[in-house]
Each structure stands twice: as C-alpha cells, then as structure tokens.
Amino acid sequence: MRAALILVAAYFLGSLPWSLWISNARRIDLRRTGSGNLGATNVYRALGPTWGLTVLALDLGKGAAAVAMARRLGADLPAWLPVAALLTVVLGHVFTVFAQFKGGKGVAAGLGGLLALAPLAGGIAAGVWVLFFAFTRTVSVASLAAFLVLPVVTVFTQRARPDYPYLVALTVGLMFLVWLRHRDNLRRLMTGEEHRLEIKK
Predict the structure, then answer these.
(1) Most buried one in 3, 109, 181, 188, CB count within 10 A?
(2) How many Å apart are CA 54 and CA 40, to the nearest integer?
(3) In the chain, what are the domain boundaries?
C-alpha cells in the first residue's frame, strides 16, 4: 500500500503543469502559442529565457524530487520503487491530469530524475543533450540523441546495481516514450522544417 501511495504521489508531482500555470499568469495560453507543447522550450519562445529556464528547473526538479521521495519514504521497500517513481513522474508530466492529460514531452522530468537515480548515466545523457544542442541549436535533436544513447550508457555503467534490470527497462521505455512524443518533430526534421532555438539575452 505504501509503495502504491508513493507512486500516486509521484504521478501527481509530475502532473504539476508549471509551464501552463506560469504562462496563464502572464496571460498567454501556451497551448495556443508556438508548438502548443507544455514544455520549457515553448515557454522560452513565448515568454523569454527567464521564464523558460525557470520552467526547465522546475521540471528537472520534479523528476529528482520523485526519486528522492521514493528513496526516503520507501527505504525499506523493494529496490525497484525509485525506478518506478521516476517512470510515474514522467508519465504524470506527459499526461497531466491538470491539463486534459496533454503535457510536455518528458525530457526535463526524465533527465532530472535520472540525474538523481543514476548520476553517471543521467549525466552522460545530459552531456549528450548539451553537445548536440551546441552543434545544432535544435532542442528536439538534442533530446532524441540523449535518450537514444541512454539505454546503452545504462547497460555499460550500472551493472553493479541491485535494480539494474529495472533501470535498463526504464531507460528503454523512456527512450521509446520520448521518441514517440517527438514524432511531429521527426517529421519536420525529415522535411527540413524543424525550428532551431534562437538564443535570447
């Protein structure tokens, strides 16, 4: 029962649509602006770097907080619980109950949780994101690359962990979820219509 409550709490934590609430407070309907996605990138384009980076930090924090909560409240529970908490916080972010189950793409919440759950694998994935973004200035390319390498990195760096099989399964699942959520971006990439992110000061 306690494990189930922790997972439900992780889902609702992930569901907190900071991008939507912040944009609404600024009298902008993010769902009708830019890409319509409830993510930090769309906030960045609509409201500028301060709010975009604020939402990014909050979304990263959701993932990390879910893992920390599962570890603290479920220390005597099975080793898979923090892994499952990361999955549910990402699902909450993607399918938020506060916005008709239409949320972000899971990248920031996923990376935030991975940095807390498996710092080496998460750190390498985050480094891949930064590298690809630096060269392409395209958030979708960076996100797709980071989650593509994530399962491979996990396989080679996390074998000594007791939750290793669950962690590998999680990273494979997150890879498919992120790629699925980027299907429109993939179409635009194939037609050369994907937008680069203009760095604002």
Answers:
(1) 109
(2) 8
(3) 2-191
